[in-house]
Amino acid sequence: MLKLYTYFRSSASYRVRIALNWKRLDFETLPVHLLKNGGQQNTLEYRRLNPMGHVPALDDNGFLVTESMAILDYLDRKFPQQPLFPQAAERRAEVMQICEMINSGIQPIHNLKVNQFLEKEFGLQKVDIEKWNKHWIFSGLSSLEQFLSNTAGNYCVGDTISAADAFLVPQCFSARRFGVDTKSFPIIHRLDLTAAKLDEFERAHPENQPDYFP
């Protein structure tokens, strides 16, 4: 049984839940609360699993994989059904670029530990942090919209679901949570609506997780 250390609202965890569902893989959900008691990701027990203290982490019969991009690549190689990365070099590169635009260019700038650092070390107020988050999300999605204009079909790259869609849908969820209207980006908005309604994506949604709370 695969075990997924996850937090319902973590967009990186959301990506992996989509991937596991897409590949029809059974997995056990092990919630890691990022806020309770100073953040369960900061405990010594969890840091032994993932020294970065990030979620998600995937346990495959004792073999630990951390970081969502590595997890999706691992799943695709070990469980090749319902592939997430295309075989053709050009299409694979397009998928990887979209994933990395989100994974390294948008999501990290507004993640929880960045916001906490801005508040504690620089004394930023909530309104200032919200402005920071909106700026970087909007800027990143603007660039992504331009890139997708050359790759999108029904999904991010052509007409087949890929890892790019597993990254896009959670990022759109985060964007709305931080007050960015994805309707400002017509291609992104269309792709998000199309993929999010699929059963595998719906079951991965934060509100459908056992650790969800409003």
What's the total count of β strands? 4
Secondary-structure-derived class? alpha+beta
Order of helices and strands: EHEHEEHHHHHHH
Task: Please tell me what the overall shape is.
Answer: globular
Our count of helices gives 9
Strand arrangement, major sheet: 2-1-3-4
Largest β-sheet summary: 4 strands, mixed
In words, what does this structure look like?
With about 210 residues, the chain is an alpha+beta fold. The protein is about 50% helix and about 10% strand. The protein has 9 helices and 4 strands. The protein has helices at about 10-20, 45-50, 70-80, 90-105, 110-120, 125-150, 165-175, 185-195, 200-205; strands spanning about 1-5, 25-30, 55-60, 65. It has a 4-stranded mixed sheet with strand order 2-1-3-4, with helices on one face. About 35% of the residues are buried. The model has no long low-confidence stretch (mean pLDDT about 95).
Describe how the helices and strands are arranged:
Blueprint: E1 2-6, H1 11-22, E2 27-31, H2 44-49, E3 57-60, E4 63-66, H3 68-78, H4 89-103, H5 112-122, H6 126-148, H7 163-177, H8 186-196, H9 199-204
